[in-house]
Amino acid sequence: MALMNGLFILSVLVFCPMTSLPIELGSSLCASPQYLPLGETGTIQCHFSDFWGVFWYNSTDYERSQPFFYYKQGEKNGDRFSSGEFDIHPNGSLIIKNVSLQHDHGFTAIMYESNVDEETKPNLVRVIVSVIPNQKYPLIDVCMGDQQCFIKLENPRNLTCEVRSARPEVNVTFYAVRTSGYQILPGKFVVEKRGVAFNSAVVLSNTSCASDHNSFSVVCCVSSGPSHLLEMDTSLVLLQHDTIEFKNSNPTLTFIEMNQDKKLTCGSDEQPLYLVWKKQMSNGSSENVTAIVHKNGKFIYKSSEIYDVGTQGLLTIRNAEISDEGIYVCVYGDGINETIISYNVSVYVIPQKDYLDVQGCSPGGHCAIPFKQNGTLICSVFGIRPFVSLELSFVDESVSKTSEIIGTTQVEPNLDGTYDVTLTSAFYLSDMSEENIQLQCSIRGDLPRQFRWTRIIQLYTNEEDVQPADDEHIPDRGISSGGLAAVLISAVLVICSVTVGIGVSLIWRRDQDNAKTSTGRWAQVPTTDDTNQGIPMRDRSDTQTTRKTEKLKEQLRSYYKEKCAKIKLPTDARHRNIEDIFVEGGIEACVSDDKEGVWRRIKSYHNIFEGESDKRIILEGGAGYGKSILCLKMAHDWVARTSDSFLKDVDIFVFLHMRYLGGNMTICHAIKKYLLPADSNLSEEDIKDAISSAHAPVVILDGFNRYPHKDDYKQTEVKRIMLKQAFTNCRVMLTTRTTILPDSASALTKHMRLIGFDKSAQDKYISNVVAVKNQQEADRIKYDLQAIPDAFAFSQVPLFFGLLAHLIHKNRIEPDFNARGVTYFLKQIIHALEHDIRSDDENVEEATFHRAAFEELCKPDTGLLWRRSTFSERIGCQTYTKYTRMGILIEEEICGRSSPAQSSVMETQYHTKVKFYHNVFCEWFAAHHLASIAVSCDEEELKRMIQSINFYDHQYLFRFACGLNSVAAEKMIHYVESLHDGEKFATLCIMEREGGIQEIIDTVKKLCARPVTIGEEDSMLLQRSMTQLLAIASQNKIPIEALWLVNMQGYFNQVRESLTLSSGIDVPKLETLNQISINETGQKFTGRELKGIFQYASMCTNLAGIRFRGCILPFTMDKRVTRDLRDRQITVDWMISAKPFYRLNIKKEVWEVDGDPLKRKDYQKIIMRVPETAAK
């Protein structure tokens, strides 16, 4: 069983003190106070026995009032008897049939044991009318509805604990938990009255007071109030305050044999307050994938069954696989002191051949080889892990003083993660008089004891010299004089090849030293030739092809190295290296072939080709999601031979922009023209031969949406490549916009997609790229980002997030910055970028620039790349200078060669080309022209003007135009609605439009007349726009036919009274919603999760039905789960496929099909039909 991306185990052994409001007794017969539920039947409990009569007074001042109800000799009577408001239990307790606020006061009960009993016994009872909140325990905001959770705290961050809609008011308090006790944390307590109930909250603004300078702290929130209001009065959170420094933890090297178990210990004999396990993968990232919380030595919560963890923190890795390798860190503490223990876990594989193989020797037996003064030895080990080094040495150290051994190592990785290691050594003996010369081939390195192998090789001059050991058998080699000559000739050839290899190694190292001097960057990259650059294939015999391959690799590396070191951001005048600016976002892979597809996140971009070497990869992503920058980072990894990247074992890596493939341009021609130096003597045929003979080459085709032939794609070389009819030995990845996908054979294609920055990636970008080594500045930037309204919706897009973070860092963002729409957002970004150049270029004429950008978008085959001289003349020199200084226009030098068909002599020229830093900027300036012409033309004329523009590739063009001009927006929205699937995108345009709500009411009505879908593939911007549109519809009493949520994993947020989606977007209560459909492929809902959804449904006053699709629901329902639906005529249906569907009988809490109860055996058959890949 493979250990997953990372590991997190949370153990909490001590919970916070339980408190409740003390009950004050009025007497031994009636308790006081007593809590009665508002709107329900309540009983003032008393325990009278053997009485003549019980008299109830509607006040505690019974001496000056008359009883309003009494029970005397078995008969009920009194002033309020006939009203039906009260009743009396046979034991004398007062029953209030419908508790209201007017009953919130004191009552008196007097019991007489007989009719002659003159001494009264008053029982004073304080009745408090209560409201039960819709929560079982205090809610800590960061726990997202759970009672216990773990979170890495991002400063500055408040911690809030709430009890909402409760009566009487509940006090909540934060405590820091220590093994020695509990410390009250200074929080601000707030009470807000909401109708007849109260919202109580405590806000902790300084969480550092709980940490005591530790990496972790345990904080609990305790509510004090009537014990019946909440089922549990304590919630708990484990806070991580600092990033764990894995490198500084001094890990103990630990080996695990493949498919075996290993136990890792942590902690002392005494159970600590908290215990945390984390794992760092080989790429340097760490993730938390499982959480365990236990109380009194017993687990009370476990999010994963993958790991075996004991109460003392003993971690068992079972059936170890290579993916289990990494640094494991255990942190435990008592709230005051903290201890760290770490292990560097390496998985090893013992080869099937458990000996070192020496060429010319029998397997595993005695090894004797004839020699002269010069000789060679080839020593190998096959199928071993981890990577090992082989060493050849003289057994007698005195021989080594006068003789010499020179060796080179070849390493070939196998598909199962093991290595074949071969050491080829040439030796020279200065003294031939020695009679017994022995060499030894040994495994070296920090390795498990099982790998301490040594093979002794005896050298002899004739067969009579060989003296076999007593326990060894020497097979008859039958080496004749001719055979001996053949051996010697082979030795000479190997020595020559080794000598050449050493020379190449020295030259290459000299080049690396020069590179270090010029850039200061690449010296950090492990590039020794001992691991054989590119790892040559064993059967490669064509020396000429090999030389061409090496030359192609060298020239490609030179090109990528330069590109990776010259990245310029619009917010920065200096060039940056790709390592300095790259932060990885999320990547998902499609794991099913059905229509909708099931997407699962992969660990890293290093795993893109993992297990998919026989498939073509299509990597899709929205505008600004970082497709090209990811490809460039992969090129860097190949050049640097990054240790945790599969590219380190790749011979040839080709990264080509598809905008270059215009006309009849072939891939090999484009490589020669755009990627190789002008003086390269490699021909297209040379390039083709080198790629075809290379070991596992990788070809990246970036930007299918910019491919000039994307509309006539079927007859192109790219199509043949994607069908594996060309470049068949290559692993190929093609990138494109999500809405522009090439036709592909599903059996040959694997689809993946970029999903942008999550909170972790955003924080990493700020800390590593923007505020480098300045945590205080990083915290300021995060704080300012949180203060910008709606900025979170743009933060998922790396392009937008990066621009905003850099400009905040430079103090270029105005205090009133707002992210209410993408038009307004980018308008403010452009304004901020103009800050440093505005004084010089105030009179720039923009209209020509806008028209030029628009006209270029109308040409599908330009690739949005132009000659500098032509484009500068077209838009004006001053305009060109302004936008190049701003970093919006980028220049790049491209080598242009005449084709051999055009000239007998190859001519080389360099041209400076210009492009937009990102195509979103091109669409921004083009939108200004589009908005201006849309105002003066009718819709038919507008349609003719823009029909050549691919809407799905240029959504921002239309959204910007709608945001710039409300008159143009109306025409744009009508046009977009007429397109295939245009209704969803029309929502984005609607939310950009300036002006009042009334101007879009008709459009909102039209969109809400059909089901509105929000799915996991939708960007946060689209999700936010859809929910805003639904809120507008609800506020304006516009009926909403249906809301379909597809794989959004929504849960009811009691604090915000909304349905919170997995993206963090809130769906507010929609009073005009008719039906909600929840499609969660393979998800298993708990009763608690369903209760939350039903609570949300109860707030949607016009809701008629709830439908669940493709998920697993409980066989039966608890009454507490369905309580919120009983007073409403809301149907609940459940479907796995189109038919049949199952309806919940809310009164009986069971599922029915065609009116008959669903049987358990049929239920088991239903859940087996859930797709297996999704259910995982």
How would you explain this protein's 3D organization?
The protein is α+β, with helices and mostly antiparallel strands and 1176 residues long. Helix content is 26%, strand content 27%. Strand 24 and strand 25 (298-302) form a beta hairpin. Helix 3 crosses helix 7. 37% of the residues are buried. Residues 1-15, 18-27, 296-304, 463-541, 898-906 and 1172-1176 have low confidence and may be disordered.
Q: What attributes does this structure have?
A:
1176 residues; alpha+beta; 7-stranded mixed sheet; 27 helices; 26% helix; 27% strand; globular; disordered N terminus
Question: For the report, how would you describe the main beta sheet?
Answer: 8 strands, mixed
Question: Strands across the major sheet, in which order?
Answer: 50-51-55-56-57-58-59-60
Count of discrete alpha- or pi-helical segments spanning 4 or more residues:
27
Share of helical residues: 25-40%
- Whole-number mean pLDDT: 78
Radius of gyration: 38 Å
Distance between the termini: 14 Å
Strand residue percentage? 25-35%
Low-confidence segments: 1-15, 18-27, 296-304, 463-541, 898-906, 1172-1176
**Based on DSSP secondary structure assignment, what is the total number of beta strands?**
60
Broad structural category:
alpha+beta
Shape: globular
Write a short abstract of this structure.
With 1176 residues, the chain is an alpha+beta fold.
Topology:
Layout: E1 9-12, E2 34-37, E3 42-44, E4 53-57, E5 69-72, E6 75-77, E7 86-88, E8 94-96, E9 106-112, E10 122-130, E11 139-140, E12 148-152, E13 159-166, E14 171-178, E15 181-184, E16 188-194, E17 197-204, E18 216-224, E19 234-240, E20 252-257, E21 262-264, E22 274-280, E23 286-287, E24 292-295, E25 298-302, E26 308-309, E27 315-317, E28 326-333, E29 338-348, E30 357-358, E31 368-370, E32 374-384, E33 389-394, H1 397-400, E34 404-413, E35 419-428, E36 437-444, E37 454-460, H2 481-519, H3 543-564, E38 567-568, E39 575-576, H4 578-581, E40 586-590, E41 599-601, E42 616-621, H5 627-640, E43 653-657, H6 667-675, H7 684-693, E44 698-702, H8 717-722, E45 731-737, E46 749-756, H9 759-770, H10 775-787, H11 792-795, H12 798-809, H13 822-833, H14 847-857, E47 866-867, H15 868-875, H16 877-886, E48 889-897, E49 908-916, H17 919-935, H18 939-946, H19 955-964, H20 966-977, H21 982-992, H22 1001-1008, E50 1012-1015, H23 1020-1035, E51 1043-1046, E52 1051-1053, E53 1058-1060, E54 1066-1068, E55 1075-1079, H24 1087-1099, E56 1105-1109, ...
Parallel strand pairs: 2-10, 12-19, 20-29, 31-37, 42-45, 42-46, 43-44, 44-45, 50-51, 51-55, 55-56, 56-57
Antiparallel strand pairs: 1-22, 3-8, 4-5, 4-9, 5-6, 7-8, 9-10, 11-13, 13-17, 14-15, 14-18, 16-17, 18-19, 21-27, 22-23, 22-28, 24-25, 26-27, 28-29, 30-32, 32-35, 33-36, 34-35, 36-37, 38-39, 40-41, 40-46, 47-49, 48-49, 52-53, 53-54, 57-58, 58-59, 59-60
